[in-house]
Specification:
This protein is of the alpha+beta class. The protein has four helices and eight strands; from the N terminus they run αβαβββββββαα. It has one domain: Bactericidal permeability-increasing protein, domain 1 (Super Roll), CATH 3.15.10. A hairpin with a 7-residue loop joins β5 and β6 (about 125-145). It binds 2-acetamido-2-deoxy-beta-D-glucopyranose (NAG). GO terms for molecular function: structural molecule activity.
Length: about 220
């Protein structure tokens, strides 16, 4: 049970009144309060970096797009503005024994040299290469941490909501890719949702572990 969270809430005295059993113990800007509440109910450590670079690069990040029968590998993925994310929701549902945490990431900017692997039944995969840079007006990450006395961000599902489509630019790296790439953007929203299904846990963990409380996973 999460009684420790409520005690904390009373002590701090900033609980927002809400529906029965819903307790908001912290202002969303109060990282220390959020960290203290998470710590009281989990094994996360207060050993945090307190910062993320404005821009950093990852190698070989793979994600899947089942609707498109495709896999993707971001061979070099540069992430900008991850440090601009902010906590946008944090509450405990006391009877439901669940904590809900949301993080809003404005202007998230992803740039990558990407390989698209197209799958077709009974055929060898086709591969295409392009450079892409996209800026997302707002990515909203939400996780439900169950059994709120032993919250574990490392094993929790994270929902990545692409609240608006990105502004992006694609440069095919060769002729076959140029011919292959679709100019039909009607299902771009499907692609972005599938993409962020894979990216959301990483983005959430890296942010929370760096700024709030360290659950010890990437
Ligand atoms: C994925 O493959 C299935 C089966 O071949 C096909 O019906 C479907 O149109 C493909 N999806 C896309 C987005 O091309």
């Amino acid at each position: 049970m999460i009684s420790r969270a409520i005690l904390f809430c009373l002590a701090v005295g900033v609980c927002a009144a809400g529906k029965a059993g819903i307790v908001r113990p912290c202002y969303f800007s109060d990282r220390k309060c959020i960290a203290d509440n998470l710590r009281a109910n989990s094994k996360c450590k207060p050993v945090i970096k307190g910062a993320l670079p404005n821009k950093y690069t990852l190698q070989n990040v793979r994600f899947e797009a089942p609707f498109f029968n495709a896999s993707f590998i971001d061979r070099t993925l540069t992430i900008r503005n991850h440090n601009k994310c902010k906590i946008s929701e944090f509450f405990f549902n006391v009877p439901g024994d669940t904590a809900v945490l949301s993080v809003d990431c404005p202007y998230l900017d992803l740039e990558s040299d990407r390989t698209l692997i197209q799958h077709t039944s009974k055929k060898e995969d086709s591969k295409y290469n392009y450079h892409i840079r996209g800026e997302y007006p707002l990515i909203r990450l939400t996780t439900n941490l169950k059994h709120a006395d032993k919250l574990n961000l490392c094993s929790a599902f994270v929902f990545g909501d692409v609240t608006a489509l990105p502004i992006f630019k694609v440069d095919p790296l060769d002729k076959p890719t140029k011919n292959f790439l679709s100019h039909d953007l009607t299902v771009l929203n499907v692609f972005e949702r599938e993409t962020f299904f894979y990216r959301a846990p990483y983005l959430m963990r890296k942010y929370i572990n760096s700024y709030i409380c360290n659950f010890g996973c990437n």
